[in-house]
Each structure stands twice: as structure tokens, then as C-alpha cells.
Amino acid sequence: MRKVRPTLDDTARMMSETNETVTITIDGRDVEAPAGAYILDVAGELDIDIPSLCAHPGLEPFGACRLCVVEIQKPGWDDWYRQLVTSCLYPVADGLKVWTNSEEVRRNREVVLDLQLARVPKSDVIGDLAREYGVERTSYAERDTDDTCIMCAICVRACDAVGRSAIATLSRGPDKYVDVPDKDACIGCLVCAHLCPTDAIAFVADDNGKRTIWDKQFDLVTDERTGEVLGTPEYLEHVRQRATDRGLRWPDEMKHESAKVKRRTYSSKLARVGRIEEPAE
Amino acid sequence: MSKGNGRPFRDANALLARADRIRAQRAKLKHEIRICAGPGCLALGARAIHEEFLTQISEHKAELKQAGLALNTTLAEKCTGCHGMCEAGPIVTLEPEGTFYTGVKPRDAKKIVERTLLKGELVDKRLYELGHQRGGGKVEKYADIPFYSLQVRVALRNVGVVDPTSLDDFLAAGGFRGFVRALSEMTPDEVVTAVEDSGLRGRGGAGFPSGRKWRSALRVKEDRVWLICNGDEGDPGAFMDRAIMEGDPYSVLEGMMIAAYALGATDAWLYVRHEYPLAVKHLQMAIDTLENAGLLGDDILGAGMSLRIRISRGGGAFVCGESSALMRSIEGRVGEPRAKYVRSVEKGLYDQPTVLNNVESFTCVPAIIDRGAEWFASMGRDKSRGTKAFSLVGKVKHTGLIEVPMGRTLREIIYDIGGGIIDDRPFKAVQTGGPSGGCLPADKLDLPVDFDTLTRAGAMMGSGGMIVMDDHTCMVDVAKYFIHFLIGESCGKCVPCREGLRQVHDMLEKITSGRGEDGDLEKIERLCHTMEVGSLCALGKSAPYPVTSTIRYFRAEYEAHIRDKMCPAGVCPDLIMYEINKECTGCLICKDHCPTEAISGEKKKLHVIDEDACISCGICMSVCKFDAVDIKSGGVIVSRDEAVV
Ligand SMILES: Cc1cc2nc3c(=O)[nH]c(=O)nc-3n(C[C@H](O)[C@H](O)[C@H](O)COP(=O)(O)O)c2cc1C
Ligand code: SF4
Ligand code: FES
Questions:
Q1: Same domain membership, residue A107 and residue A90
Q2: Which helix (H) or strand (E) holds B298?
Q3: N or C, where is chain A less crowded by C-beta within 10 Å?
Q4: A110 and A197 housed in the same domain
Q5: Is residue B557 domain-shared with residue B635, that is, in the same domain?
């Protein structure tokens, strides 16, 4: 079979069990990496910090935030010539040279963060990141808003992964925004809100047995013995449906991942909440 | 005339025999009336003209017969695609003599039948006047009009010549010779080699060598390869691909068929811009006809080849023309671009190998196969071979659709073919490459127009838009205009394009309204650099060109806006003032027309404009008959209305 770019699940699989490896140079270090893995993932394994806002290990790469840009040089290129690429989408190949923190890389991240800061002046996450790149205040026209959405579309992709596809990006260009066009599709699982890197999605997790997100109120089901919140009835029904659709046994008692979700724990387990492979214990 | 014989062609010989038969029939034609039914002429009433011709021909049947003219044997009439000179429409031409009538009205049909067909006289009033202006000198044949005589038509070879709804017409014009040659005399490999040798580069924007793309698709060993023809053409003002799809649909299909043969593709999509219903109609008619004729479907011409071509209506956004967005759109998903680190010849439509080319690129292919790669490569310059279609618009005397060999200079295109600037005003700039192209100044007029030269100069070939601007154009305003367009077209997925365009527009707005500050230009340049290298797709990557190219060539004009609060071209409303000069006769006209009553004055006395009440609408200037209103900017007179001088 011909070698193809790994998609979503392939990437993770290849990172662990692929047999084909390539040698690349990353910030001067020669390293071995699974062929076809993305630069961002390879760097992550090596504890090289590449900032990223729209990448998530459990979701299809998107390439929207442009923070993860790095410089590369392919074998055979002129010595002076490098190209800026999106590391969350760029598959490594033999002989590739990567610079994750060069002047050009930093300059571009700086402008990108400067732009983001103008978009979401109230976001601490962006503010902190921008400061790391020397941007104290935005040099552009600041939006007058409390909104902190940076349009990374993690929520959209997460909801897709959950199997609901309730969230969509609407409109285009600078007016583009994220919303839930069909409220019925939302099951109140909170995955979107928990994965949002800038906490832009407002929600109330548990207020007297009620939960609110996307302007929709849900009831909550609790574990009779422990009193632990299991989720909304819509959510439980959805997970049960998905499990039975795949012919999986539905245990009488099931602890739900989402109840334990910590904010921004970027574990791939979390994003897989909707893609249950086997019943949880 | 019959539109096909309804039976499928058994093999290539049967098809060629049919073409010969039709050509023999056509050889008997003494006159053929060609009524242009391109978008411009249709809008001006081409259908009514066509009907009137039919009426007149039947009313004059007896006389025509006496003159040896019988409809469908020695006399023919037909509607064709766009002739390219829409401003002079409706256009009617007579073949074989090449008479060129412009501005034709339905009642002219009678005159043309009675005088030209029956007596061999010309209808003087409808002859073309050079420069499209009175006193320009009348011209009889279109071969004598520089607009046409300086063109070399390859992609547009049949547009304006054939009836786009007739397979027979296409066959008579040499259609399917290329396909038959490929199918019966060449191996797929040889076809790809021919396209490589021709030097053909993609006409859709990026100029990627088509042969190389096809070659790499051949190397991908997968069963299935998709073929896609990009007919999205979202550039405002561009209509090359439209003219081809509407006026010569069979050539587009023939190009795709040759590609399908070479690449082993059995499934193809034609992605047609949403706003082009006539193109869809003609292409669909052509597809249906070819299916019935055994030229599409299974076992094509008995040679065992199968091909199915389907039409997909575009997503209605400029960005849908971008290849990865287009593929998503065909898949029924949101037309947003993806990063292309894996080539679409490996993973394109449905993540399967895909070859995508532009309409004009495909249309060149049959000509290349039919006439040979050397012939195509003999035209052009450097690494840009063959010809290229352009839509020439703006402040040029002859606007329209043209095709020239690569390497002609901008001056030849604008002055020789386009006839120069309207009112013979000074040329200021030409914008090439569509909305995200660059603007080139007068000292670049002698640059040869080819992919690499334009790119080096900070502009681009794009899909072939050319907008000519005269000295009344403010380049900062132009940059702002294009950025504004692109804001509406950005898909909004990635940060540099989405946020960057907004901020660039903000800063340009600031500059044109007189609030520019020192350092603004540097800030814009820095931002533009990040957009160019850091955006996800080519829309964002090229979006800064209108700005970077104007800063590069017209920096002084930006600086005048920023430093002196002056718009040298007298365009930006916040930076200009209208002032009445000594020529004023006190006629009160301007005073009567001013919407804010900013003008005071009495009859026969010099009028005065109150600066504070004036909103710079320019109405006074346009109504003044005495050239008594000046535009002042930064304290000096920057423009005088010379229209009445
Ligand atoms: C924003 C954007 C819009 C585009 N629009 C078109 C289009 O309308 N038609 C077209 O043929 N190519 C368009 N392209 C270029 C295509 O992505 C692609 O390069 C081209 O269709 C390939 O065909 P070619 O190699 O024959 O030129 C566009 C590119 C971008 C970035
Ligand atoms: S560059 Fe613009 S059009 Fe292209 S993906 Fe980014 S936002 Fe969308
Ligand atoms: S993480 Fe790569 S673009 Fe956002």
C-alpha cells in the first residue's frame, strides 16, 4: 500500500505503533520520528514548546490559529531558503529541518497574537501569550467586547466528535462567529465549554439540579448512591444510543467521563467521549 | 441545421466522417450570419435580433432564392458565444467575408438582409468606428480592427464562431480532432508528455505546470483518480471562463476527455460558478448530446474508455474557487480551504487522488494535441508558453475579452489592443490578477506579461483580470477598495486573513480620512508580511498584494495622505474641498443642485462654497458648465474637471 498522510486517529496510532521512522532535525537536534506524524506532535514528544490554540490531540487538525507556525527546509533546498508552515498540519519526512523558534517564526507569532489581542482584549489566555511574545498592548484597533472567542473551532470539532454537530461557524470573514443554530441538537455535555482554550463559552454546570449552556437549560441526572452528577438526560440518552448503535453492552451503572472533566485537561480521552470504544467500567 | 444524428458514433472513423460531411455541406455556404449571444449582447437584445433575422429571411425567401441563397444550404444563421467587445454590442458578423456590425437593432435585420445579403452593400451606420467613438473612422471587417487583429485565439478559438448548442458546428470547426488523435494514436503517457512539452501552465491563478501535475497523478498508483474542472471564476469583472463555458462548451469537455484518457479517470466534475446559469445550461446540453453520441459514458467510440462528467453548481463564494475549498464544496461540506501539505493528486476529493484544472487550461489541451506541443510552445516567452485570455476593463477605450500570446507587453495590450486610455488621459496604473492582484505603474508598461515577470513585479497573472486606471485614481483608495472586497470574501477560518484584513482596512480608512500617523505604513507592511506568509490559503496569502504593490510603487501618494493630509488624485472625500474659481458666471446651477445648500451667491456673481457645510459630493463640479469648480486638497488644486474643455 502507498503511504498516505495519517488522519486523526492514524496519527495517534502511528505515534505509538508505526514501524516506519524518519530522521529529522528539529532546532538543531537530530531525532527519529514516526513517518507522517505532524511536526507539532513530534515536537510535543520532545518537550519542545510550540504554542498552539486550535490543535487538540483528539481532534482533526484545523490550522486556523496560525500560532504553531515553524520554519522548515526540505532536503535539496537552497541553504538560505526556508518556508513557514503550519506545524499542526505538516507531516514530517526524512531529512526535514525544522526551526520552531527562529526570528521569523517569533515575528509572525507576535503579529498573530497582536491581532488576536485586538480581537479579544479581555482574554487572559491571549494576553499572557501575547506578553510572552513582547506584546503588552495591541497595536491595532481593539474590539470593544467581553467576548473571548478566537474562532479556533475546537468546540465545533469537539461537538462533531461527540456525534452531535450542534455547533457551527456562521457567516464569514471578520464577521464569522460560532453558534448553535439548532438548539435541539445540543445535549448539554459541556465538552465544548471545557475544551475552549479561552473560556469563551458561558455555562452553568450545576445550579440546583439544572445546567445551562448555549442559552438552553437542562435537567441533571445524579447517581443515587453517591450523589454524583452523571449528566443531562439528553446526554445519557445520546451515549446509550451511540453505544447500542455499535453493538456495545450498556452497563447498568456507568460513570461518565464528562463528570470528571477538568477544564482544559487536554487528554485525548476527553475528546473521545463520544467515540466510546468500549463501555466504561 | 441538424444538431446531431441521434445515433452513437461507432468509432473514431465514424466521427471523423461525420465531421467531413458537415464541412462539405458548409463549403456550399455563401453567407453565414452570426449573431452574438454572449452575456453583453443578450442583455442588449440579441434574441430579438435573432428572431427578426429569421422573420426577414423567411419574408425575403423568394428574392434570396433568386440570389442563390437558401436557408440551411447556402445561407446559414446562428447565435454564437461572446465576441469579446461587449461595449459595442449587439454584434452581428457575416462570414466568410468578415463583415462586422455593431450596435445592431432588430430593425437592422431587414437592412442587412436587403442590402448586404441581396445587394452586397454595407449598412454603413452599423459599421464599427475605431476607438468606438464618432469620427474614429469606419471599419468594415473585424480583421481590420486592432482589437481583433492583434489577438491570437487559442482558448477562445471557437467562442463567437460556433453555435454552442450544436455538436455539428463544433465538429465542423475541428472539434474532437484532438480527442480522436489522443485516443487512437497516442498512449496516455504520450498525451501527458505532449502537455508537458507544450509548457502549458495552469490558467486559474497559480500557474502550476499542467503537465507536471498530470505526470505526478500518473505516478500515484491508485485505482481511482478524480478529474475536476474549475469553472468557479469568482473574480469580479473577469469573464474569460464564462465566455468559454457559454460559447464553446464542447471544447471544455473535449479537454477534460483528453485528460481523462491520459489519467485513466472515469469520473469528472465540472464545478461551475453559481451565477452562471447559461454556462450550466450549455454544458449540460453538451454533456447530454455527447452521451447520446457515444462520446461520453461507457465504451467511448468503441475504444473501451469510460467517462462520466457531472456538473456541480458553485457554492457562491469567491473562496470556493480555491482548490481545497472547491473539493469540500463538491463533497457537500462548507467550502473552507485546508492546508495543502499533501498534494491533491494524492489526496483530493474524498481524500482520493484528484487532478484539478481551470476551464481555460482544459480548453487549451485539445488544441495542443491537435496542433502539436511545439506549436503551442512556439508562442509565449520564457517559462510562460502559449496564449492567455484577459478581461480588459477600466479606463481603457476598448474593454472586453481578449487573448494574446504570453509575453506581450502591458503597453501593447492597453494601448494597441485596448486603444489607450479613455479621453486620452494619462495612464496611472494597471491592476492585474483579480482582486488580490497588484497594481503596476506607468514605468512598468513595457513589462512582458507572463507569470514570472508579473510576480517579480509584485503583481500576478491570476486568472487574467486587467483593470486600467487613469490619473483620476487614488491608489490608497484603490487598495482600500480591494481590501474591502476581500473582507467580504475571506472565509474567516484563519487569523492573519480574518483579523488582518479587518485591521488593514481600518488603517487604510484612517489614512484616507486624514487620520494617518507616522509609522502607519510600517505597521501595514509588517501585517501584510504576516498575512502573506502566515495565512492558510492563497486568498489570505495574496490578499495583501493590492496594498503592498501600491505602497511599493506609489509610496509618495500614501505619504501625502498621511503627512500632508492630501489626496493628490483628488478622490478621498475627507481630504478634498471643492472651490469655485474665476470662471464662474453666476448661473446658479450649482447652488440649486447642492444637497446641503453649501453654496451661496447671486445671479451673475461669483458663487462661494461654505467649507463646513460641504460634504464633498462633487455634484457642483459635475453640473457646472463652465469648468468653474476645482478640487483642492492639502491647499492646492489637484484636479480640474476637463470634461467640457
Ligand atoms: C481565493 C481563490 C480563488 C480561486 N478561484 C479560482 C477560480 O475561480 N477558478 C480557477 O480556475 N481557479 C481558481 N483558483 C485557483 C485554484 O485554487 C487552482 O489553483 C486552479 O483552479 C488550478 O487549475 P490550473 O492549474 O489549471 O490553473 C482560486 C484560488 C484562490 C486562492
Ligand atoms: S487565508 Fe482567508 S480565505 Fe484562506 S483559509 Fe484563511 S481565512 Fe479562509
Ligand atoms: S495549532 Fe496549528 S494553526 Fe492552530
A1: no
A2: strand B297-300
A3: N
A4: no
A5: no
Distance CA B485, CA B499 (A): 15
Peptide bond into A174 cis (omega under 30): no
Residue B578, helix vs strand vs coil: strand
Residue B547 lies in a domain: yes
CB of A258 within 8 A of CB of A220? no
Residue B204 Cβ < 6 Å to ligand 1: yes
Beta-strand relationship, A21-26 and A97-99: parallel
B535 contact A CB<8A = yes
Give domain status of residue A278, yes or no. Answer: no
Q: What is the pLDDT of residue B171?
A: 96
Spell out the alpha helix ranges (H) of chain A.
8-17, 39-45, 103-119, 124-132, 154-162, 191-195, 233-245, 268-271
Q: Do A90 and B341 touch (CB under 8 A)?
A: yes
Residues spanned by the domain of B507: 475-563
- One domain for residues A129 and A159: no
Q: What average pLDDT is seen over chain A?
A: 83
State which of B344, B378, B412 marks the end of a domain: B378
Q: Provide CB contacts within 8 A for A44, sequence distance 6+.
A: A50
Per-residue pLDDT for A181 more than 80?
yes
- Give, using CA atoms, the residue closest to atom 6 of ligand 2: B494
pLDDT in tens, B141-185: 888 888 999 999 999 999 999 999 999 999 999 999 999 999 999
- Asked if the model's pLDDT at residue B313 lies above 50, the reply is yes
Query: Hunting for cell 465531421 — which residue is that?
Result: B19
Same domain, B86 and B119: yes
Range of the domain at A75: 2-100
Q: Which helix (H) or strand (E) holds B324?
A: helix B323-330
